[in-house]
Amino acid sequence: MKQEIKLWMKSPMPMVTLTKTFDVTRLCRVSRRRGLKFNMLLCWCIGKTASRIEEFYMLPHDGKLYKYDRMAVNMIVDNIKGGLSFCDIAVTDDLEQFNANYLHLTETIRQTCQDILDISFQFHHAQMDGGHAAHFLEELQKTINHV
Predict the structure, then answer these.
(1) pLDDT tens digit sequence for 37-48
(2) Is the Cβ–Cβ distance between 78 and 84 less than 8 Å?
(3) In the 8-state DSSP scheme, what is residue 55?
(4) Residue 6, SS3 per DSSP
(5) CB atoms within 10 A of CB 88
(6) Which of 30, 52, 53 is nearest to 42 (CA)?
(7) pLDDT classification of 120: cutoffs 50, 70, 90
(8) Can you tell me the distance from the alpha carbon of 117 to that of 105, in angstroms, rounded to the nearest whole number?
(9) Which one of 39, 45, 56, 83 has the fewest beta carbons within 10 angstroms of its own beta carbon?
């Protein structure tokens, strides 16, 4: 392994925050017209957009670089005991399937208070630089505009 890659994989994780205001008018309309939850639609758009960007599948861990073959969106749900529960909803191009999975899994963890974390994915700054992240935000707006 080249020295640069070794240094990159062991580098401290700097915090970079990008902010962007999104026009979610279309999501609001689709949510009302089709009776779909706004949060589900936004999560679907985020997952769908991220799944088209190769860097989102790469993650360094324990000195190795892993490429994942699938992706999920992590959901945090208020459960019936007043706490928080978590589940991962697999990303799919099929909005109806994502919605069905979203409704089933979020209700299951709300009622059972048991986390469902078959897949857990966090974005790490080592995956991409600011340019890649900004590109993702632009692509996300395009996805939202075409729901």
Answers:
(1) 999 999 999 999
(2) yes
(3) G
(4) helix
(5) 19
(6) 30
(7) very low
(8) 11
(9) 83
